[in-house]
Design a protein that fits this description.
By secondary structure, the chain is mostly helical. The chain contains 4 helices and no strands. The longest helix is centred in the middle third of the chain and has 20 residues. The two termini are 16 Å apart.
């Protein structure tokens, strides 16, 4: 997958973390694209592609989803990527939507909306 979709995802992640994270985020949370591990760049591009495909197959009606629904979609796609790249991921990396911190749920919804705008 091309670099651009992954960068749309990563840029939206960084913006969301800066806006929603309580306090000072870990440096890895806001590391620029060039410093992001290869697996994470691949995962970001894959999830961005899934969001775009979802928007396309919905005939553009995915815009009617609530922020919660949009964020859940991003979170679920991301969890699948974690399982793809890690045999035994930490439980926090594959936590269900309801177990994610508020800042992360808001950031995931922001990612979906950023991809929407880029389509």
């Amino acid at each position: 997958m091309s670099e651009r979709p992954g960068r749309v995802f990563r840029d939206a992640w960084i913006a969301g973390v800066k806006q929603h994270y309580p306090g000072e985020p870990k440096s890895s949370y806001i590391a620029p694209w060039e410093e992001t591990p290869e697996w994470e760049r691949e995962a970001a591009a894959a999830v961005c592609g899934q969001i775009r495909d979802f928007i396309e197959v919905s005939g553009g009606h995915a815009t009617k989803l609530s922020r919660d629904q949009k964020g859940r979609f991003v979170a679920t796609c991301w969890i699948a990527q974690i399982h793809k790249h890690f045999e035994n991921p930490k439980p926090g990396y594959v936590a269900d939507w309801d177990d994610l911190p508020e800042w992360q749920r808001e950031t995931d919804a922001d990612i979906f909306e950023a991809v929407e705008r880029s389509v």
